[in-house]
Amino acid sequence: MIDWTHFTPWTSLMGGLLLGVSSALFILLNGRVLGISGILGGLIPPKRGDSAWRISFFLGMIASPFLFSLLAPSGLASPPRIDAGYGLIILAGLLVGIGTRYGSGCTSGHGVCGLSRLSPRSLVATLTFMSVGFLVVYLVRHVL
Amino acid sequence: MGHLRQRFSEFVVGLMFGVGLIISGMTDPGKVLAFLDPFGSWDPSLAFVMGGAIAVGFFAFSIAKRRTTSLLGDDIHLPTSNQIDKRLVGGAILFGAGWGLAGFCPGPGIVSMASGEIKAAAFVGSLVLGMVLYEMVEHYRHKAHSIPPLDSASTYE
Fold it and tell me: Does B91 touch chain A (CB under 8 A)?
């Protein structure tokens, strides 16, 4: 059943367009693929001459909640819900950290940029992590 | 600082991308998990995020593919690897499992941490730890078997 009370097609579409515009600007202005795990992974460990662009991008991201609070003082229609406990959060973080490095990308690098440039590699990666995401949620919520 | 325009551009893009994640609902793990749960009370909103982002990205990358330098004069770095192998699929499986367990992927985790969510900070901390572990394992494998290390800069998406 579709959860109509939480369904936000317009703000999600607007947010998505903004993600697309950001990715477009990054490749056209800076010549870089906007993939978060790749930008972060390149800082571990940091390499001389290849860190400043990564750091200034992250400084912008870190400032974004502040800008959003100026643009929308009343905040989001429904505030974020984080149901997972710390144990699960830490396990999830490890899996995401290791997985995005072996898989060379995450939702932004493969899911947005990779699919936008019609990369078969990114299509395989995106179908894989989406399917596993659906499967894990199914198992956690409906089987276990 | 000889690259002030570049640094400014990267900062503004990071800012826009973060605001996009917040507006879209990606920084709400509850919403992400509701998207991944079509057999429960399903919230399909995030399909619109992906659709909107790719609709714009497609045009940008089709232009970028035909250029060698960016508008600010830097090289355009597009991934060159086209190998579909165990690393790619295995990594995507681990990532999908982590994403489905907590509802966070890297970008939203970082933005949510910056907005003061302690759990998001725990997520980002262990995400970084996972990346450090990856480096250590690959470093060890390289030393033990003299397997040439992958050039992460060129294979990354």
Answer: yes
Residues of B in contact with A57 (CB under 8 A): 10-11, 13-14
Written as one string, the DSSP assignment of chain B is -TTHHHHHHHHHHHHHHHHHHHHHTTT-HHHHHHHT-TTSSB-THHHHHHHHHHHHHHHHHHHHTT-SB-TTSPBP---------HHHHHHHHHHHHHHHHHS--HHHHHHHHHTT-HHHHHHHHHHHHHHHHHHHHHHHHHHHH-PPPP-HHHH--
Give dist(CA B6, CA B77) in Å, integer: 15
pLDDT above 90: residue B153: no
Shortest distance, CA A134 to any CA of chain B (angstroms): 5
What is the separation, in whole angstroms, between the first and last Cα of chain B? 28
pTM score, whole prediction: 0.93
State how far the Cα of B72 lies from the Cα of B18, in Å rounded to an integer: 22
Q: pLDDT tens across B43-102, in order?
A: 999 999 999 999 999 999 999 999 999 999 999 999 999 899 999 999 999 999 999 999
Amino acid at B4: L
What is the per-residue pLDDT across B102-115, written as a single tens digit (0 to 9) for each? 999 999 999 999 99
In this prediction, residue A77 carries a pLDDT of 77
Q: Do B58 and A25 touch (CB under 8 A)?
A: no
Q: How far is A123 from chain B (nearest CA, A)?
A: 10
Interatomic CA distance for residues A9 and A72, integer angstroms: 18
